[in-house]
Amino acid sequence: MADIVLKDVSKSYGAVEVLERVNMHIRSGEFIVFLGPSGCGKSTLLRMIAGLEAVNAGEIHIGERRVDNLPPSQRGVAMVFQNYALYPHMSVRQNMSFGLENIGTEKGEIARRVDDAARMLEIGALLDRRPAQLSGGQRQRVAIGRAIVREPQAFLLDEPLSNLDAGLRVRTRVELAQLHQRIGTTMIFVTHDQTEAMTLASRIVVMNNRKVEQIGTPMEVYSRPASRFVAAFVGSPSMNFIPVTGIETGADGLRINVAGAQLATTIRQQPKDKGELTLGVRPESLRVAQDGAGDITGQIALVERLGDRTLVHVTLADGSNVVAEDEGKSTLAAGGPVSLKVDGTATHLFDAAGLAYHAD
Amino acid sequence: MIRDKRSEYLAALILVGPFVVIYGLLFVWPTIQMVMLSFTDAPLIGPGDWVGIENYVEILTHRLFHNATWNTAYFVLLTVVPNTLVSLAIAMAVNRLKGWQQGFVMACFFLPYILPVSVVYLTWNWIIDVQYGLVQYIVRPFNGGEPMSLTRTIPFFMPTVAVVTIWWTLGFNVLLFIAGLRNISPEIYEAASLDSAGRWRQFRKITWPLIWPVTALVLTIQLIAQLKIFDQVYLFSIGGRQDPTIVLVQYIYKLAFQQNKGGEGAAAATLLFAMIIILSVLQYQALRARGEK
Hints:
Helix content of chain A: 10-25%
Largest sheet of chain B: none
Structural class of chain A: alpha+beta
Strand content of chain B: under 5%
Number of strands of chain B: 0
CATH topology of the largest domain in chain B: MetI-like fold
Number of strands of chain A: 22
Low-confidence stretches of chain A: none
Number of helices of chain B: 12
Oligomer: heterodimer
CATH superfamily of the largest domain in chain A: P-loop containing nucleotide triphosphate hydrolases
Order of helices and strands of chain A: EEEHEEEHHHEHEHEEHHEEEEEEEEEEEE
Shape of chain A: elongated
Helix content of chain B: over 70%
CATH architecture of the largest domain in chain A: 3-Layer(aba) Sandwich
CATH architecture of the largest domain in chain B: Orthogonal Bundle
Number of domains of chain B: 2
Structural class of chain B: mainly alpha
Mean pLDDT of chain B: 89
Mean pLDDT of chain A: 91
Largest interface: A-B, 22 and 17 residues
Distance between the termini of chain A: 37 Å
Number of domains of chain A: 2
CATH superfamily of the largest domain in chain B: MetI-like
CATH class of the largest domain in chain A: Alpha Beta
Largest sheet of chain A: 6 strands, mixed
Strand content of chain A: 25-35%
CATH topology of the largest domain in chain A: Rossmann fold
């Protein structure tokens, strides 16, 4: 068990910078998820921790040791690859024992650890098969098993669920969470899927465009996004953004003018840059007013019925499009007018630089 | 899409027909003719009388045939496995290079392969020449300071021709191995490096077993090619005593074209044909079985 500390870690390929001064402190036993769109550098960062990519500048510490100059085998980490990277010519048992054989672990000990891991992952019956004879989900388990037997200080998982079909992905996600609870080892998990991040993480590292945008618990990231990017990337359907035409200071917080209406919010902090402001409000905080007496009105463009709730796509007076929520039994139809109620205690204000101010 | 059955057959016939005709005319028919000829006492041109298995008995008791068989086997031993191992080593080295460097080095190794045998022979004849050959600088210290003709000293003849043959033909094997190596996912090596496997263990436990199907193919292609060896051995032995270094195809050539014994030549050719088929099938099956274990 060990903390993982990254200090000003940077990476570039020639003149192309892919990571810029990344700092973070991962506490022992945490389930950390690197979340971000393709090409944001999250996989590269994971591979740098693993030792598969060189670090151009900065330091990586695992436990008491500085590891950024050590080869992968000496860092005490195990990795699960996106395509599993199982050895195709070896049986499942050989795949799992290979790493232990290489460090000269005693035969009986290898067998004990492989059998334990196989029991935990329910792959005991597959030990004599080759990877080609396994299904995607089984290969996934073998890849995890291969990591477990090494009893590493941290597991590094590079989009391990992305090759599974939808149902299996959800099940494996749950199993992974249970596995983490049981063995308690630090896990770093890379994904572009915000549902995986929200459900698995103790803390999420949201990355975009070579940089870390925010590090926080799933609820922090969701309810107090540090930037407009984080606000837009986390949550489904995505947060609504409405251009602000003016702000006034009210009794409980800022009063914000948007699309011909004034909304009372509990945002207390005055934005430093008052240039181009945007109001952010999540669909569940923008509800259809049943009595027609909402804060803001618009035209219904589309109605999506999800059963338990209804998503209403609305075009506001200033032409901006938002998604609002209504109850499951909604009778609304496209084309009609609608009045929306804004929950002022769950609003966010973003300045031109993307910096966020939250309602308290 | 549902197509008319008859037009399907017609299309198939048009596509396959030319090959079948050419294959039958230029391979199957001559092969049958050769086997028939081997049971007659025909000269090189014209028909002969049926003599049964007399030609085979004659050849199998012929000292020169035994000579040729041993020489061919010796040549196969000197070339097939060494060529395969050297090709694999070069392929692994070339595979580590990137971009234009890889292309350039690859081209350097492949270039000899496109040369005709006459050019290869002349080039190497200069290199090993007794009076001014470069190789003599290496040979002299081992020969009491005296130069030595490598192709006129019988024990050195086959090894010399083997080295030239390996130099000439390894480009193609390197190409096959590089294709095979590129098929091994880099992630597997990354997983192995996380699994504490050093370079040698990665080669022994990952590369060697995964490249085995290509190795088996290269070994088999080599075996067939080297059993049919003729050109280099013939060219390098011109002007010298040919019998001590004679190989099987050369023996067939000698019987048929120099001694005008068409029937015996055909019998020797039939024997070689059978030998190649049996050996290559046996070898390939054995290698495949090894790979599956």
